Amino acid sequence: MVGRGGRAVRLSSVSATQTSLTHWGAFSATVEAGEITAVAPVAGDDDPSVALGNLPGSVRHISRVTTPAVRRGWLDHGPGPDDSRGADDFVAVTWDELTELLGDELRRVIDTHGNGAIYGGSYGWSSAGRFHHAQSQVHRFLNCLGGYTFSRHSYSLGATGVIMPRVVGTHDDLFKRSTQWDVIVEHTDLMVCFGGVALKNTGVNHGGTTAHPARGALDRFRARGGHLVSFSPLRDDVDGPCDWFAPVPGTDVAIMLALAHVLAAESLADRDFLATYCTGYDRFERYLLGVDDGTPKSPQWAAQICGLDADDLTALARRMAACRTIVTVSWSLQRTRHGEQAPWMGLTLAAMLGQIGLPGGGFGHGYGSMNEPGLAPVRCGLPRLPQGINPVTTFIPVAAVSDMLLSPGEPFDYNGLRLHYPDIRLVYWAGGNPFHHHQNIPRLRRALRRPDTVVVHDPYWTPMAKHADIVVPSTTFAERHDFSGSRNDPVLMAMRRLAEPYAQARDDYDTFAALARRLGVADTFTEGRTSAQWLRHLYEKWSATLDFEVPSFDEFWQVGQVRLPTDEGLTLFADFRADPSAHRLATPSGRIEIFSADIAGFGYRDCVGHPAWFEPAEWLGGPRAERYPLHLLANQPASRLHSQLDGGATSQASKVAGREPVRMHPDDAAERGLAAGDVVRMFNDSGACLAGVVLDDRVRPRVVQLSTGAWFDPADPADPDSMCVHGNPNMLTDDVGTSALAHGCTGAHALVQIEKYTAAPPPVRAHQPPVFAAR
Ligand SMILES: Nc1nc2c(c(=O)[nH]1)N[C@H]1C(S)=C(S)[C@@H](COP(=O)(O)OP(=O)(O)OC[C@H]3O[C@@H](n4cnc5c(=O)[nH]c(N)nc54)[C@H](O)[C@@H]3O)O[C@H]1N2
Ligand SMILES: Nc1nc2c(c(=O)[nH]1)N[C@H]1C(S)=C(S)[C@@H](COP(=O)(O)OP(=O)(O)OC[C@H]3O[C@@H](n4cnc5c(=O)[nH]c(N)nc54)[C@H](O)[C@@H]3O)O[C@H]1N2
Ligand SMILES: [Mo]
């Protein structure tokens, strides 16, 4: 291969063993006959993710999209709303036909309805790799055409992404510049963890990761005498010794208020810290002590809500005030109704302890949610594919996708703004799976009937691909050259191609380049580069910005990695503590806003000016629990990343009777006459799914866990209300935002009922390709 200027681009060809990287870790692969047959973690990774076991067999898996495909109804009748999405046959087309059909449809929508009629948010994790990042590629492509309606925030951090910039002036730094594991090991006496520190989740990092230090750090922390307190309905959200409190799910804010109440009532709150570094504590304290509403948020009050012992909470508050304590809040807590409150209240509790900015004290968000918190940030930016400029200003908070499609023109509130949903004609998805990530699948299926055209790029026949009109077969990361780059991983890794593209799969970049050519924007999109030339270009452009030496691209590619310098020994907000005027927070007051006049000014009923306890609809203490008496935790799966490679060996080994496992307490099973291995029907007003029973007394009674990621598999594809026979928990979650402030995803929780499924369980066909019709 020859690069620009005639230099040799030494992108090695496919060979038997290669290293590469996924979001869940770096590995070396054995490749035979175009397929990954074995993988091993790289040296230096002490705690590799079990999800690596899903990679063998993933290139030639039965669920691969092998040809460009168009839904028969769309091909026969042209674009338009259609109830048969998800139930129709597909027709194989050539790449040239696909480029023509899709290019012309994009042109039609833009010319007739304008660029704002394209929804190109395209949320999803796709693959690691800086260049072939599907979401960046689709955004760049659509920007070349004049833009698209976009989405803000993520399913991961929908509430946090809005509340935290308002009250502590940042969102990113909470993770990127979090207090490091080594500092916690050395200085922290007590880690009080709301939502535990789930090591299953630290396997994963956005953009990939070459090391997993969390488990080792917790071992060293305990060896030094540190103690862990976990509030979680699941004992195994902490691996190893801890004080385990199993509250009623969704009641953490009440617990935090009770701890805060003890601090206030017993003069244990750090008044100097609150006066110097915070604003609005007085307003909050009136609420805390019940001055206006007559309800002190005491341990006795909280005990009625969370089901824990009031004396235990009092004792814990005193213990927290007496030693170096870090309060951590997992991301799951903000993926619920009123999800803004838990991170805001966790921060407030830490502020009352007065240890924010001291080594090993203060606040942490997401230890055990992602590998990133606790890891040292790299001291430089990363190579990045420029996405161009989007002239369209219409957007939605990301988890409002069904609302948008079902209610064009309707007004909605978001973060102090009154916005309107656009009228979307074309939905473009590359690198995500809404049937994994969005709530209330029956509602999503109705929403997807509305647009004229749905386009999906994916390597696999995911349920989203099966609901598309135009399906574009993408390569997987394993079939192309790329390189990694993650802001808290010290290694930039070459991701060399492991196998030739399977069947007719094409890189997303090449698909967009062909479309750009047809639409007359090829030069803008490709800038005259092949993907190999882009890799070199991005690397060289990036290395020119650095104030330290890195090897040339050719050397990098040959050696396979570059080590980047990192900022070591960070404590979150240490600078602010040392000098609050020089390091003002980016909030209106420059300080931590325990009371936010801006938020109060919006007048929202579900998010007021200070952190507060709101009763959610989905909780065991509310009226809905009479009909649906079990609290479902729809958490992240231990066996895979989201829905990715659900057909792989590790994921498949976790299934029970071919279904996703639902973990429940033996008493709840006995009450329903259920035994381990039974197939059950889980249901509520949103929908229903089947699952396979696992009994475990580490689950709090009346709580059940069905992780996300089983590919949606309707018993009757033509019926939008059809149950899922495979165990997708988003059949059960309610499609409602966190509050009018953030409208974040609330998929973590739902109330359900469970009964034995007595009929013969339908076969699971989730990973089978759809039916193809002759032309
Ligand atoms: N109920 C409930 N729902 C949830 C959550 C929850 O806790 N509970 N969690 C939420 C969270 S935090 C998240 S982040 C989301 C995750 O939701 P998603 O990010 O949408 O889930 P993934 O399964 O990672 O989807 C990525 C898709 O990209 C495809 N892909 C991989 N490589 C490529 C490529 O190179 N090109 C293209 N075009 N496609 C590629 C994969 O095959 C896969 O279909 O789910 C959310 N949904
Ligand atoms: N293996 C694996 N790791 C992953 C992912 C994956 O798909 N697979 N996804 C990654 C992504 S994109 C994200 S955003 C993060 C998400 O990180 P999180 O949102 O933190 O992950 P979850 O597993 O949903 O939740 C963590 C734990 O919180 C507990 N929990 C749930 N509700 C409550 C509650 O009301 N109160 C208390 N105290 N505890 C509660 C649950 O027991 C759960 O196991 O995970 C990342 N890590
Ligand atoms: Mo996420």
Fold topology:
Blueprint: E1 17-22, E2 25-32, E3 35-41, E4 69-71, H1 72-77, E5 90-92, H2 95-113, E6 118-119, H3 134-144, E7 150-152, H4 160-168, H5 173-176, H6 181-187, E8 190-194, H7 199-202, H8 214-223, E9 227-231, E10 243-245, H9 252-265, H10 271-277, E11 278-279, H11 281-289, H12 299-306, H13 310-321, E12 325-329, H14 341-353, E13 362-365, E14 395-397, H15 401-406, E15 411-414, E16 417-420, E17 426-430, H16 434-437, H17 441-447, E18 453-458, H18 463-466, E19 470-473, E20 482-483, E21 491-495, H19 508-518, H20 522-526, H21 531-543, H22 553-559, E22 561-563, H23 574-578, E23 592-593, H24 597-602, E24 630-633, H25 649-653, E25 661-664, H26 666-671, E26 679-683, E27 688-695, E28 703-706, E29 749-756
This protein binds ligand MGD (2 copies) and molybdenum atom.
